Structure formats: C-alpha cells, structure tokens
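Q: What residues go here?
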C-alpha cells in the first residue's frame, strides 16, 4: 500500500499543477520498473478516487492543519490517505501506518509526526469535520464553483443529478460487432466466460463490473469493443448506407470510425491532427478487421488535405470541454477553467465552418461533443444555422436525444453527449 500511496500522491500533485492525468500516470509507471500489477492498479485507483473527491478531501484537510502545509508531497499524501479513510475499504489502522511509512521515506523528520497526527485526528473528529462542510457546495459536490453555477443555471431541474453522476465510477460498456454477434448472443458468450452483463440495446452490453479486455470473448479478434453507450449513438445517428463516401473528422482513437464501418460498407476517410493518435486508430481498425483512408490534418483548414470530392456523411466529433465524461476523466474538473469554454466554442465554430463546404448537397453532418455546456452545443448549432442558409437541423432518432433536443445527460448507463444532425439543403 505504501508504494501505491506514494505514486498516487505524486500523480495527484502533478495533475493539480496542470498536467493531464493519463500522461502523468503513464510517465510515473514507466519510471517504476519494479512495480507489480497490483501496485499499479492500486495507485491508479487511489489517484482517480482522490481527484474525484478532491474538493471535499481538501476541505476536510484544511480543518486539520494548524497552518498551511508548504510541502506539496506531504499535502497530497494526506489527501490520498483521507480518500482511503473516507471512501476506501482498507482498514484505518493500516492506512495510517502505511502513510506514516511513506512520509518517512521523504527523510523529513517532521513529516511522520504530522501525518500520524492529522490522520488520527480525522478518525477521532470525522463527524464534526463533515458537519462543518455540509453547507459548502464545492466540498459537497467536489466541483469548482463556476461549474456548479453553470449547470444550475443551464439545467435547473437536473444539475444536482448531473454533478452526482460525474462522481460515480463509470460502467464498462461494450459495443458488439454486428459482423460476428448481436447483444443477445454475446451475452451468452460472456456468461460462459463467467462474466455477468446485460444488454442495453441490440449492440450495447454493460458489464456488471469492469474486467481486463483479455477476459472478453473474441476481443482480440474484433468481436467487441469497449465504448460508452452514449458514444455508440453517433454511428446510428449518422444515418449511413452502403457505398457512401464518409469523413470522420477528429477521429482518434477510432471508436466511432470502427462503429460506422461495422454498420455499413462505406468509403471511409478518418482524419485527425495528431499522427500518434492516428496510429492508434489504425491499430483499432486492424483489430476489427476493417480499413479506412487515414489522413493527418486540421478539420478547420481542409484545403491542406481534402481531395476536392464531397462527402455524403461527415462525423464531426469536435474538441470540447469534456464536461460530460468527467467520471472517466476526473482531472477535467480541476484542469478546466471557465474561460476555456469560449475558446472551445470558437474552435468548434471554425471546424463546423471548415467542414460544411466538404459536404455534398443533400448530405448530412453529425456534430458531436462530449460536453453538457450549452455554449458548445445547441447554442453553437443555433449560431451556425443563422449564418448558413443551406443548413437544416434534422430530428434525432433516439428518443432520449429527441426529448432533450440532442443533449444526452450523464447517468448510470452512459456519459453526457450532444448530437446535432445537419443536412445540406
């Protein structure tokens, strides 16, 4: 446990300094050559959990410190340990002892005593400490205040449930490759492998608990892919048919690309601006036994890569705040700033404008974000429709999307997404 606490404390500190969580963990693990798979998994769990509830843990910690703590590692070690004491199943005695040993490794003579005192005081005073922060919204929901305020203003009925959904552990959902199975037959294969799951529709299956992909029947042969149910709506909303010329802009890591190709035999161009991420797209397509023309380029500047032939369908899964998928990317809450939303909206406007002229007359463009903020979603589409007289917004197929005007709210079965299908008339 001590090693996992140390690594998690380092990771939490780097994320709070502004670094991407996935990159941080990958780098830390690369430098720990003797780390066991169990320690690696535990470090990741502690990091995710601590960041998920960071604001609440910080509010508790501040009550236990007599003066600000200048040592960043000890500060973050205490946050990780508090997470274990509040949310984890580990025994309190073990958590405290291991944290003290981790502090001792720093060779700072004062650190052991401080860590021991803070954590034992928390165990004695927990009920009182939690009462004191009961009215603190930031601590209660563990989101920045601006985020809470924005959701409350934009979703006066659903804002609390949306915040709570973002703090849950995400489900592991699979997309069954229709070239091999449907959900019902794949469920049987899962049960035969000792895995409990249920079908969400004809292609989506949700596991009772997450497992390594190596345990999934036929995974390496492309029989299933890991993909959130809400993300699976994209290929279905795009309304593709055999023989169409299709562009998947901003395609990495290729989940939606593969899904479209599973649904129809189309001439697919998969475009992204990052060469390394395109390599991952290629790997995913190879696992599925599918192919596409991969192009590196900027969706907002198609003149540099477009061949001049119009597309029948365009999937524009644009860069966004990722505010709808925070339960999978817990660092987003602490990396995003309120002013970032306007910057994303401007980037999205340029991409929409750039891609629209690539669409054939009568063709359809599906605009997608994994955001819940209106500025990136329906407000963006409304502005586009005002300036583009040959664009018409089409109704969504999925009932939930229809009732929420294309906005899929985060919930127990899926993350938050926005969909707008635009036709060139």
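A:
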């Amino acid at each position: 446990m001590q090693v996992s606490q140390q690594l998690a404390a380092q990771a939490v500190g780097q994320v709070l300094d502004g670094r991407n969580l996935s990159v941080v963990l990958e780098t830390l693990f690369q430098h720990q050559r003797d780390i066991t798979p169990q320690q690696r998994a535990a470090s990741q769990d502690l990091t995710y959990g601590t960041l998920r509830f960071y604001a609440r843990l910080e509010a508790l910690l501040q009550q236990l410190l007599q003066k600000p703590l200048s040592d960043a590692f000890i500060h973050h070690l205490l946050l990780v340990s508090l997470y274990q004491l509040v949310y984890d199943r580990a025994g309190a005695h073990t958590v405290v002892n291991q944290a003290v040993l981790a502090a001792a490794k720093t060779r700072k003579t004062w650190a052991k005593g401080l860590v021991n005192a803070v954590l034992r005081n928390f165990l004695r005073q927990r009920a009182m400490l939690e009462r004191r922060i009961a009215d603190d919204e930031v601590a209660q929901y563990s989101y920045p205040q601006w985020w809470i305020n924005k959701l409350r203003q934009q979703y006066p009925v659903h804002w609390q449930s949306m915040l709570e959904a973002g703090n849950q552990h995400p489900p592991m959902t699979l997309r069954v490759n229709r070239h091999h199975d449907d959900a019902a037959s794949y469920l049987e294969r899962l049960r035969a492998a000792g895995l409990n799951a249920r079908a969400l529709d004809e292609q989506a299956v949700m596991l009772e608990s997450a497992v390594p992909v190596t345990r999934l029947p036929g995974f390496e042969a492309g029989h299933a892919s890991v993909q959130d149910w809400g993300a699976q709506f994209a290929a279905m909303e795009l309304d593709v048919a055999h023989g169409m010329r299709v562009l998947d802009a901003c395609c990495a890591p290729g989940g939606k690309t593969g899904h479209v190709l599973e649904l129809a035999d189309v001439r697919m161009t998969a475009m992204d601006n990052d060469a390394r991420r395109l390599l991952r797209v290629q790997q995913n397509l190879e696992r599925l036994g599918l192919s596409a023309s991969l192009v590196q380029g900027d969706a907002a500047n198609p003149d540099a890569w477009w061949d001049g032939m119009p597309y029948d369908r365009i999937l524009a899964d644009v860069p966004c705040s990722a505010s709808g998928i925070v339960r999978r990317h817990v660092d987003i809450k602490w990396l995003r700033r309120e002013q970032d939303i306007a910057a994303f909206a401007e980037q999205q406007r340029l991409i929409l404008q750039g891609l629209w002229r690539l669409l054939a007359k009568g063709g359809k463009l599906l605009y997608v974000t994994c955001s819940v903020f209106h500025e990136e979603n329906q407000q963006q589409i409304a502005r586009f429709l005002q300036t583009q007289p040959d664009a018409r917004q089409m109704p969504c197929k999925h009932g939930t999307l229809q009732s929420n005007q294309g906005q899929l709210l985060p919930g127990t079965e899926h993350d938050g997404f926005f969909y707008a299908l635009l036709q060139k008339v």
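A: Context that may help when evaluating the design: The chain has a mean pLDDT of 96. The radius of gyration is 23 Å.
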